[in-house]
Amino acid sequence: TILTMDLRDCIAENSLDIHFQPQMNAQQHVVGVEVLARWKHEKFGFVSPDVFIEIAEKNNLIYPLGLQIIDKACFQLAKWFKRKPSVDFKTLSLNISPIQLIEPKFEKDLLNLLEKHNIPAEMICLEITESVFMKNYQTAITALNNLREHGITISLDDFGTGFSSLNSLWKLPIDEVKIDKSFVSSMSKDDSLFTMVESVISLCKKLNLEVVAEGVEHSIEFNILKGLDCNIYQGYLFSKPLPADLFEKTFLDK
Ligand code: G
Ligand code: G
Ligand code: G
Ligand code: MN
Ligand code: NA
């Protein structure tokens, strides 16, 4: 299709964009940043990553696309480090599709990019989804263990939307869980969803996993989550994903 061809060109020209969304602690201090890919098509305008990531996955483009995103994100982070000694957030979170994770070269390619930009592995958090464990359980587990040996952390994204059961959490090699925004947005109106969020947070604490609530849009949600002692908060209440210059102006110029 046209979009597939145009995406191929866009990757060849290295012209995808990235946006940055802050992750806050309970004091509303930025403790991390999630990187989100953006594609502005010259005719169709912004194409949602839900659409172009899937195109990339189906057309053998996701691996090079993914490395370009990581390269750009690390370049930007290194730039922030140089210009702003005050940059003190701890993690850069990258969305990684299953195809990237199970690619044998991935660990080496990622470490090379970190070395190129002089980014400590401890700052990198890879967001994966439960789907990676469905088809490629053992390969995924091995890849995650290897990555974690370098200090890279692993976050389970969109938690609650897949086929996960709460008791699978204790055996996966992960460091963090992101509660899906569908739970966060309905929690203040639906008692059973509130109970679910409460249970997930309490279980994560017992398992020593960080908990991120995504899709925090209103202060009522932020307050409920603070009451449950959630660790990290992300959503439009604080900021939508922003281009690097705006992110810098809003959160790093202090
Ligand atoms: O803003 P939002 O529309 O950015 O993102 C939609 C979906 O696209 C999310 O599920 C997000 O995880 C995914 N996504 C965004 N950027 C990337 C990326 O760089 N790589 C991968 N694999 N997925 C991404
Ligand atoms: O950034 P935000 O979460 O508001 O974007 C939601 C979706 O809308 C994204 O998946 C993105 O592809 C699309 N989108 C449309 N216009 C814009 C824009 O000007 N900036 C950003 N960041 N996303 C846009
Ligand atoms: O990677 P993941 O599936 O978590 O992608 C996060 C998605 O959620 C992105 O599309 C991002 O733009 C979007 N997002 C971030 N904050 C909010 C929010 O507060 N509300 C909603 N509806 N979407 C959000
Ligand atoms: Mn994510
Ligand atoms: Na998510």
CATH topology: TIM Barrel
* Portion in beta strands: 15-25%
Helical content stands at 40-55%
Order of helices and strands: HEEEHHEHHEHHEEHHEHEEH
Count of individual beta strands: 10
How far do the termini sit from each other?
Answer: 46 Å
Bound molecules: guanosine-5'-monophosphate, manganese (II) ion, sodium ion
The biggest sheet, with number of strands, parallel, antiparallel or mixed sense and barrel status, is: 10 strands, mixed
Pairing-aware structural class of the strands and helices? Answer: alpha/beta
Mean pLDDT reading: 94
At the first level of CATH, the class is Alpha Beta
The radius of gyration is: 18 Å
CATH architecture: Alpha-Beta Barrel
Number of helical regions: 11
Q: Please, how many domains?
A: 1
State the shape: globular
User: Low-confidence spans: pLDDT under 50, at least 5 residues?
Assistant: none
Name the CATH superfamily classification.
EAL domain
Protein name: Bifunctional diguanylate cyclase/phosphodiesterase
Domain EAL: 1-254
Organism: Marinomonas rhodophyticola
Can you describe what's shown?
This protein is 46% helix and 20% strand. The longest helix has 22 residues, at 62-83. The mean pLDDT is 94. By secondary structure, the chain is an alpha/beta fold. It contains 11 helices and 10 strands. The protein is globular, with a radius of gyration of 18 Å. Strands 1, 2, 3, 4, 5, 6, 7, 8, 9 and 10 form a 10-stranded mixed β-sheet that branches. It has helices at 2-12, 49-58, 62-83, 98-102, 106-117, 131-135, 137-149, 181-186, 191-206, 219-227, 244-252; strands spanning 17-24, 30-41, 45-47, 91-95, 124-128, 153-159, 176-179, 210-213, 232-233, 242-243. It has one domain: EAL domain (TIM Barrel), CATH 3.20.20.450. Sodium ion (NA) binds at residues 157-158, 178, 180, 214.
